[in-house]
Amino acid sequence: MSGKRITMKQVAERAGVSRTTVSFVLNNTPNVNISPETRERILDAARELHYARDFAATSLATGRAHTIAFIIRQPPEELSVDAFMGGLLNGVSQAVNHAGYHVLFYAMGLNASKGAYAELIRSQRVDGLLISGPLVEDSELLDLDAEGVPLVIQGTPDVGDLPSVDVDNIASARMATEHLIQLGHRRIGMITNGPLTYTSSRDRLTGYIQALEAAGLPIDEGLIQSGEFSDDSGVQAMNRLLELPHRPTAAFVASDVVALGAIRTIREHGLRIPGDISIVGFDDIPLAQYLEPGLTTVRLPRVELGLHAGKMLMDLVEGKPVPERHLRLNTSLIIRGSAALFE
Hints:
CATH superfamily of the largest domain: Response regulator
Number of strands: 12
CATH class of the largest domain: Alpha Beta
Distance between the termini: 64 Å
Strand order of the largest sheet: 2-1-3-4-5-11
CATH topology of the largest domain: Rossmann fold
Helix content: 40-55%
CATH architecture of the largest domain: 3-Layer(aba) Sandwich
Shape: elongated
Number of domains: 3
Strand content: 15-25%
Radius of gyration: 23 Å
């Protein structure tokens, strides 16, 4: 079993006890009723497996700092234009502050080194982690969970059975695309909200593809362009769509912020919205209703996502049962003037 750190879960399986019991023994938790025989069996299993206590997990188990880390998996420069995050942070802060805890906020981009979560715990003693914008196949989250670190994913985790709060991104993106199909559009472009290394980007693309397939429409890879969480990426992606020999009559843009750049580009090309091209966004940021025309978009419950994720983490930190380990909140399509019938 060399080459990978042994976890408490593996020790528990070898000793035939629960992971909680292993945690009590290895962390010398006082006032717990564990028989000498069971304690010795756990210690023997730990020695046989060459288990080494993880400093990060130990720092969480030995006492509370009444602080949690809220980690956004985006580079700091992208957060300055991400209007969705304000509402999310508002909700997280409400839940955490109500429980008497504080929030440390971190931006961690795609290039963060392996072990970055554990290093954060080492450098800033925190009681739990709330991670927004999970990546595809982020195995480090499984390691932390196996060590008993309280963590909640705001998003849809791609690995394990990690506690999470999110919307159904696939169904929501499908709803947005189906709206354009119902309006008569058959050549529909898509701009993702971010790289496909993010589970939300992958799932929203999946919803778009599902809607086209259900309507019997072909999947044209040239109509699928990548956004990067910013309005500038929307400018570049829409330019690529408009340069196609047969440009789309409509586009689903999987982020309102990215859609702002796409809208600017359409107008700079002398085209009208929705007369020449219809647009549907995703998020329903506050600015969406004030655009001319107003942006048709999928409304996400920004504050509620943060609130429920924060409450779930507080329950885990304080050892309370979590009623629903994978909570999915509802979205709705807000119809304004940016999408119209194709004639």
